[in-house]
Amino acid sequence: MSKILVSLMTVAVVGALIGGGIYAYFSDAETSTGNTFTAGTLDLNLDGGNTNVVKFNVSDVSPGSNGGGTWTVTNVGTINGYLDLETVGITESAGTTTDPELANEPTGLDTPQLGTYLLAHMFIDTNNNGNWDAGETDILGTNAVPVAINTIAGSYGLDLSLAAGGTNYVTLRWSVPVTADNRIQGDSVILGMTFELQQRAVD
To answer: Sign (positive/negative) of CA torsion 22, 27, 33, 35?
Structure first.
């Protein structure tokens, strides 16, 4: 009787151990902590900074005058982007009125005329030499166009790839043909533009 009781107790203990889930299988555990997500940056610099750049301040413009200037455009961010010329705006003023100017005005009134004669050609200056070369991308026209409100004002989808840390150059050449007459005397033109860097090309 006692042997049977001991045997039953042994079986019960073994069953309890098995039911309790005590095993000797191998195991290992590893961790994955500190997972971090940091947003990249898309940051456009114009001529090395983030402030307004006045590239032209030209006085005493006359028939035969010409010149140019180049913007250094840099993506100082960490994400590749696409460069666009977002807006171009033109403001014209009749400015100072002279007798010879009025004599050449068909209406006898002083109206802004410089924008009709002032020619502009803007392009991606790949080699940064200040001049348009074959194969370079035109922005305003394929040649010099008049800086008239209805001609160049607007938006331009360049979609020029500009990698993180990359630099490109945008040049504007301007001129006033010798055929311009007294009607431009005293007139002025203010040209404004906004460059934009976007993560993706504009549809």
So the answer is: negative
